[in-house]
Amino acid sequence: MTSKRIFDAEFQSLSDEKFTMHRDGVPKWSPAKPGVEFRPIADIRPPTNSATTRLGQMNRIARQFRAEFSPHTAPDEISRLRLLSKPLYRYESTNEQILDGAVYGFVDSTDPELLLVIEARRTDAGSTWVYSPARSRHDRLRLYYGDKLVWDVPRLAPPWSNIRNPDRPYFNLQLARLLPSDQWQRIEEAIDR
Length: 193
Prior knowledge:
There is one protein chain. The chain is mostly beta strands. It contains 2 helices and 13 strands. Strands 4, 5, 6, 7, 8, 9, 10, 11 and 12 form a 9-stranded antiparallel sheet that branches. Strands 1-13 form a two-stranded antiparallel ribbon. Strand 8 (98-108) and strand 9 form a beta hairpin. The longest helix has 13 residues, at 51-63. The chain is globular.
């Protein structure tokens, strides 16, 4: 006996350029616009020359933000998201303008629902900080810097076809799989542990 299950693979572009993702040689995702739009962070100390110190600066900057969402099942409710204490990913770049960067996650339980990208950049006027939010949830999301609302994006789904559109920076790809029931039982038992 087999059981049909659906895997949802959630994607959010963190690229400031267009691209195409292929699976088995077939284009599956090609956002029509970049997934991030960087904005300056005003009135803050510039990035230091030390990578270790810059990480501390990025952590302090991230803590100045707070995030919330309104679930599609209760659009008038507001649920606060928790900032993870460490970046999900820290990166260097081959782009000479980017000194350092990190991706932070605001989570509901342990699932990142809003991503916050913080970068230290070189400019003609010196080094500066920029940020960009990115969704990782289909519900309405809001991001605040201090008490100021800096990002407010509407709910995308339902209808579910909105998040299965491969032209969007946020994309949900459904992968159907057929597995014998005993294999699913072992998988589900492992997840529940």
